[in-house]
Amino acid sequence: MRSSLLLVPALTMLLHLAACQRNVAVTTPTDAPQTGMAGSVSTPAPTSANTIEPTPRPDAVFDAARRPKWLADRIQQHLNNEKQNPPIHIYSYQYDGATVYYESSPCCDQFTNLYAADGKLLCHPDGGLTGRGDGNCPDFTKTRTDEKLVWQDPR
């Protein structure tokens, strides 16, 4: 009985050494397969860039022409606050024959804002718990025209 108890640690040590000598290496391929497919599922090659946090497009062209003072002040408020994820975007549109400004929400179930050219809040076209806004401008997404990116948070 005593000799069998002594053999257990010795056998465990031998098995461990034998497993370590196999030099098993696990690598992750960084190149796409030569055939274009790896089995039946197409998997993109990994990227070295951080893809979790969105970054503003460096080539984005902002429509800074004739920004009303209230809108410049609103943009400054966003810059003074903590960075939001996703970043805030402001677009101008033509809606019901007038220029309006659409401000995205920072996240999730929050309302977006639609402002008149004078800065008056017209409605919340989308967002909220239902994703349909407050219902005061239900045709906005269907009838808006002339989209221009006015500003997006560059941070």
What features would you describe in this structure?
Residues 40-53 have a biased composition (Polar residues). This is DUF6970 domain-containing protein. The protein has a five-stranded antiparallel beta sheet with strand order 4-3-2-1-5, with no helix packed on it. The chain starts with a helix and ends with a strand. The protein has three helices and five strands. With 155 residues, the protein is α+β, with helices and mostly antiparallel strands. The mean pLDDT is 78.
Label the overall shape.
Answer: elongated
Mean pLDDT equals 78
Unreliable runs: none
Task: State the helical fraction.
Answer: 10-25%
The major beta sheet can be summarized as:
5 strands, antiparallel
Q: SSE order in H/E notation?
A: HHEEEEHE
Offer a concise description of the structure.
23% of the residues lie in helices and 18% in strands. With 155 residues, it is α+β, with helices and mostly antiparallel strands. It has a domain of 84 residues.
Annotation keywords:
155 residues; alpha+beta; 5-stranded antiparallel sheet; 18% strand; elongated; signal; DUF6970; DUF6970 domain-containing protein
